[in-house]
Amino acid sequence: MPTPKATVCLWFDKDAEAAARFYAETFPDSSVRAIHRAPTDFPSGKAGDVLTVEFTVAGIPCLGLNGGPVFPQTEAFSFQIATDDQAETDRLWNAIVGNGGSESDCGWCKDRWGLSWQITPRVLTDALAVGGDEAKRAFAAMMTMQKIDVAKIEAARKG
């Protein structure tokens, strides 16, 4: 497979390979493509350590860089994953949170490496796209949630 023209580079302290393998196991259309080891010592590691990992998350090409603790993950970057129903929402949310991650509000959570995820049912984004009172009701319901409850969003849409 040729190298993509654009790739999201994600900075990890030292666990890019473990993170990439977790993402590949958790998200559809995800895989680990290659692992590259450092040819010499570098500021946060030794020759032979994993330096970069090429992987795909939900079809998005990524590069995990083991760059050390200098730049931790922040909410300024997140993956938004669209889900089709409550079962898929629960599965992805529980995989992230249950593997050392943490819950946040409005469908956001963090994995154990500090990377932020938005697990977003399509029913919510569809409601917001409609606009008007339906969007206001769905938005108000979402604001009370951590993991999104599809049934509550559907009920809010109907009024």
How would you sum up this structure, described in words?
- The chain is α/β, with parallel strands linked by helices.
- It has 2 domains: 7-69, 2,3-Dihydroxybiphenyl 1,2-Dioxygenase, domain 1 (Roll), CATH 3.10.180.10; 73-159, 2,3-Dihydroxybiphenyl 1,2-Dioxygenase, domain 1.
- 33% of the residues lie in helices and 28% in strands.
- The chain is built from 5 helices and 8 strands.
- The chain has helices at 16-26, 86-97, 122-130, 132-142, 150-158, and strands spanning 8-12, 31-37, 50-57, 60-66, 78-83, 102-103, 108-110, 116-121.
- It has a 4-stranded mixed sheet, with helices on one face. A 4-stranded mixed sheet has the order 5-8-7-6.
- Helix 3 (122-130) packs antiparallel against helix 4.
- The longest helix has 12 residues, at 86-97.
- The termini are far apart.
- The mean pLDDT is 97.
